Amino acid sequence: MHNYTGTTGSNMGANHTISGCEPAVCLSGNPRALGGWLAPLMVGVMRELLLILVLLTTAASAAELEGTACRPPWPRDRECFKQQTIYFNTGSSVLRTEDIQNIAKVADFLKANPNAALLIEGHCDDRGSEEHNRWLGDRRARAVAKELVRVGVAEDRIDTVTYGKDRPVASEHSAGARQKNRRVEFILQTPPKP
Fold this sequence. Notes:
CATH superfamily of the largest domain: OmpA-like domain
Largest sheet: 5 strands, mixed
Shape: globular
Mean pLDDT: 77
C-alpha cells in the first residue's frame, strides 16, 4: 500500500510525494494514478536496475578473482600454537596478562618467520543467539589481532574469522566445557612450497 501526500485536483503535472521518496510527477493530476500505472512501472524499472547492478558487480568480482583463483591455498597448521590458545570470560573480549604473554610468543615466532601468516579464529560457548556469538567471536579475534599489531606484527599478515558457537571443542553444557569453548585459536599459514 502506498501513502501519498500532496495536492489534489486536475492540475496537469502536479507534484505528489510517495512516503519516503522524492516528489513524483502525477501526469493525470490524480494522486491515485501513481498507484494505477506509474507505480508498477517504477517497480519494474527499479528491479531491472537492481539486476543490472548485481550483474555488473558479479562480473567485476569475477574479473578480480580470475587472477587469484589459480593460486594454491596456503597450508594451515593448527597445532603450532595450540599452547597459546586464549580463553575468555563469559561475554568478554578482554585480554588478561597471561593472554598478552601468549600473544607475545606468537608474535616472536611470526617476526622470526617473515613469510608466515596467521589466521585468528574467534569462538564462543553455546549460550546466546547466533548473531551475538558471531559478533563476540569477531570482537575476540580482533582484540588478539590488535595486540599482535601493537607488538610489531604487520597487519597484512593477520586474518580473523569468527565461528561463534559453531565449532565447540567440548560438546557438554557444563561450566568447564563452556570455558573451553570461549576461546581464540591461532592457525599458522605458510606459503606453499614451489
